[in-house]
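Team,

Forwarding the record for the chain on the shared tracking sheet. I've put the sequence and predicted structure together so nobody has to dig through attachments.
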Amino acid sequence: MRARYDPGTGQFLSQDPLVLLTQQPYAYVSDNPLNATDSSGLARGIIEGGGDGLSVSEPAINAAPDNASGFGESVTSDTNAGDTSGDVCTVNAKGQPYPTVPDPRTGEPIPAPPSGLTKAPIEERVVWTTTARSNFLTWWEDQGYEVPQGESVQVHHILPRVYGGTNAYDNLIPLLTSQHAEFTGWWASYGP
């Protein structure tokens, strides 16, 4: 995991990779980074143990179940965009399953969003520019990841800007245009 922590301020400088699930962008290891660890950045839950050797319980990423959302447990097809219980939304309002495309950073499918998201007001949505796109793609390659080859490439916002997604690099991934179209089509029918 590449989380950046500033001990001077006691804050993380990079977002939790599970922000879509936890809704807590800077809350690694139950906000106890001095006494607990999560080397993968993909655990959620409460801190267990005492003294030395604290760990975070309840791993958030499964090994690779067939219908996994990418988070802790398999989500059945009755979890839908109209459900506001906080579950992960793997099926949109048209009954279409969330696209399954692996994220090279984790090896797992790009995580499905939580249920019950609402659209952000237009004036609060982040702006996406060609400069931001170019900077991200340069950063992506600098991290050792490959930009997809073949057809044209789009930079996908995992949580779309229309739903409050940011241009934080943890929320971005380069995809082939055909893969991006799958996500765009799915999001077009997100919600009740």
